[in-house]
Amino acid sequence: MQTADDWITQTATGSGPRMTGACDGEEERMDQSGALDNLLQEERVFRPLPQLVIEANVNPQELEAARTSARMDPLGYWEEAADELDWFKKWDQVLDDKDAPFYKWFVGARCNIVYNALDRHIETANKNKLALIWEGEPGDTRKYTYFELYREVNRFANALRSLGIRKGDRVVIYMSPLPETVIAMLAAAKIGAIHSVVFAGFSAKALRQRINDAQAKLLITADGFYRNGQISSLKETADQALVGACTDCVESMVVVRRCNIALDMIDGRDFYYDELIRQESNEAPTEVMDADDPLFLLYTSGTTGKPKGVIHSHAGYMVGVHRTLTTVFDIKPTDIFWCTADPGWVTGHSAGVYGPLMAGTTSVMYEGHPNYPQADRLWAIVAKYGVTIFYTAPTMIRMLMRFGAQYPKTHDLSSLRLLGSVGEPISPEAWTWLYRNIGRSECPVLDTWWQTETGMFMISPMPISLLKPGSVTKPLPGIVADVVDRNGTPVPPGKGGLLVISQPWPAMMTGLWNDDDQYKQYWQQIPGVYYAGDVARKDEDGYIWIQGRADDVINIAGHRIGSAELEAAFGTHHAVCECAVIGIPDRIKGESAKAFILLNHGITPDDDLIKDLKKTLWNELGPVAVIKSIEFRESLPKTRSGKIMRRVLKAEELGLDSGDLTGLATD
């Protein structure tokens, strides 16, 4: 058996990234073409254990054959992936690109993702297999087999129909990680409604904004949820969200009883979940959907201040998610898969709900805080249920690293065989800590790159891959990714540039809700390719290193929040004249936000004002929007056209060269 030391080899070819959030004093500079110099070196290479290679569903030769096949015949590759799923009617055409970039996948097909996630398993040996293991923060648990989950989804699907929800209607789900959250997503999709899950940490205003944009007909929420030993109310926030302009679109609200909080229920509008489904049948027809019918909307922060409603559709999304999740994580019949992401984010959709269910595996879901009642809660859950695949975010790892290795050592983590990372670049330090202390120096750490917009894994290693801490390795078969300058010219190895995808993929977003022009911008910033908005580089071995965002989106603990959205929230305070927000490196959260504020005339800054400004931000956007510090200024650096130059503020904050200031206004 190889040891950890056998796994590690030194190589002169791998040079690592300057990671977001690293506090090592290194710096990157972008030249006029968009290329960057990388100064921090990472030279370790981790080789897969022989047993992992032997037992892998895809061996190295098969992976290379898949890459070759996908390169020679990309549509044939994805058609083969589609054949692994069930269809009511097969496609007439794999890809219609006549109206690019509005690509259409599996044209003419009829399907429903819920049929592949649930219905088809009822006819197989998976029927009585556990689909979901849920644990609440207080320690209560619930378990559902595929058959039990299928029946619960059917009952709620029938209830939704009784409330008048039909194909194409929008349903907003505002809940913490509960079984009913999963059931609501699946039930809405089953009847052809479009669900939009909103993270339970968002404020009433943020929820209202998303309801209004989607013109949702139904809101599903809970009375509350447990977090860090406290009960957080949700129904009260949901009620506040429905008080205001344009919320007349919501006809009904369904409330799950989680904490048994006394509630004000409005007759004719509000319904308790348990009462609503009590008399419903265990059987419900699955709506037959066109391939490009929308499945869900997921709002993601943009640089304009208004969240973007990313649309994913049934056919392409299910093909891409199923193929990439099952191959990257080498899914086997005995696996217990735990993705720690909240259902309010795309990772919670693809790797928490739809992907594992389509794969027929068993998933774990946890409601509460990872450090409650102490910092071993996650490791206790891994040991309790025998989790074999653990998929989490670097910010979670950095937070747990602060407590050292003592907590994981108190639990038996020997069931683990694969570890995964998602949401932001993972530093070599965090990668190595996860590998040694959680993976026992035996489990590969699979760092995946993808986005809300991509829907599925795009760049990722596999269990058989050579691994370099901090690198997402190479694009998966069927994905053509490159690092280019602003003109679209590939940059040399070792240089940084802009990450692009140069051909369509099945799980790609099919548009932005009511905003075709902004959708086109993804394909027009560098003509002919999808611009990911990330800075990256390739090393001499073709390994890709993600180095952070190229725009003004701040990645706080894996949550992407637009600077403009934070600035707009500060602007609602009576004392604020103008504001700029930047992201600065943070060891734990990856990035934290700092605000530079110009006050209205006659207002003097003090501690009370700072507290009030932070309270305003909380009220406007919710606790997900964390501001680390506020600095009051007499002026902000701007271009001659009046645009704030955030890069200048960031350079000043980090002690870096501010670069070309010829466009800076002097008055």
Helix content: 25-40%
> How many separate structural domains?
3
3D shape? globular
Number of strands: 33
Low-confidence stretches: 1-40, 660-667
Protein name: Acetate--CoA ligase
Family: Belongs to the ATP-dependent AMP-binding enzyme family.
Domain AMP-dependent synthetase/ligase: 125-513
Enzyme class: ligase
Core attributes:
about 675 residues; alpha/beta; Rossmann fold; GMP Synthetase, Chain A, domain 3; 3 domains; seven-stranded mixed β-sheet; five-stranded antiparallel β-sheet; about 25% strand; globular; disordered C terminus
Would you mind describing this structure in some detail?
- By secondary structure, this protein is of the alpha/beta class.
- The chain folds into three domains: 4-91 and 295-512 and 530-549, ANL, N-terminal domain (Rossmann fold, 3-Layer(aba) Sandwich); 147-290, Rossmann fold, CATH 3.40.50; 553-654, GMP Synthetase, Chain A, domain 3 (2-Layer Sandwich), CATH 3.30.300.
- Helices cover 29% and strands 24% of the residues.
- It is built from 20 helices and 33 strands.
- It has a seven-stranded mixed beta sheet, sandwiched between helices. Strands 2, 24, 25, 27 and 28 form a five-stranded antiparallel beta sheet that branches.
- The protein starts with a helix and ends in a 13-residue tail after the last helix.
